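Incident log, structure service

09:12 report received: a user says their structure output differs between two submissions of the same chain.
09:20 pulled the input from the user's history:
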Amino acid sequence: MPLPSPSHTADSQEPVADVVCVGETMAVLSPPDTRPLAEQAVLSMAIGGAESNVACGLAGLGHRAAWLSRLGDDPFARRILAELTARGVDVSAVETDPERPTGVYFKDPGPDRTRTHYYRGGSAASRMGPELAGRPALRRARIVHLSGVAAAVSDSCARLLEALLLGREGRAGHGPVVSFDVNHRPALWRGGDADAARSLLALARAADIVFVGRDEAEELWGTARPDDIAALLAPAPVVVVKDAEHGATSYAEDLPRARRRPRLPPGSGRPVPGRTTGGVGRRRRGQRGRVPRRRGPCGMRRLQRRTALPGGRRGLAGDHPTGPCLHGLLSMTTPADDDSCR
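09:34 re-ran on a clean worker, output below:
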């Protein structure tokens, strides 16, 4: 899977981002202890967003990571921008909406689980639309990373994902590689499970790299075995099936030949807040539309110290497969490998 050159793209001599992550990030207000939210007098503030988490993780691994979204003109937005910037994420393409607020959610501890109360309806990010697909930051990126959360936030956000995935001309080699994490959030889908299953399957099949939880696939499509999930998501060239504490299994149809084999830098095993655990399995080869043959999943215990990345390369494990997998793909591709993309 060829990536655009890390130094420039066909339409620009300017440096480009390795990865641009697109989606909503919100302020998170959490109690300091396990008492319910209604009994709290003080809350601590942090930030939360699936796509910006990936950007932070990749920036920590030394890649040029950018985050694209919309925020309100308010203190929550300034906190988000300051924290992402401090973590090395480029936020220069983020738009400010003076009329709509930044989304906020609250964590509410309970005896059985922590509930989450979202206040994101009408947020600045919910007004993202397909017009953003033409932004130079997205055209010049090597990888564009998306998630199914955005597809459920609003109709206009769904149209943005459709433009970035379904509206492309061909796959990798004609613009950025597009990575998609299914990240199914049932409570966000106003059309219910059937709408979510149909929409997320279409988006996932159009991506170049797909991340999906085994439990998500079973809930959405009634498919629980990793081999069957990979076959269902064909013709996606790379599929990573996550299985919580059991790690993950990756299937790949075509990956670039590595001219160098760098390891992940020390410290990449540090978890990214807000993400579930998992690792990346070995590379699996197979033909489009067929179930790729695999050698069996890697267990989480084995991945706590080392994990296999795309191409069979091994390095220190991250807490979640998305960052390490994208890191592996970026590291495998050098300017000399990408003459056809210049």
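09:41 both user submissions now match this output. Likely a transient worker issue. Closing.
09:42 reviewer note: Residues 205 and 233 are 5 Å apart (CA to CA). The chain has one domain: 19-341.
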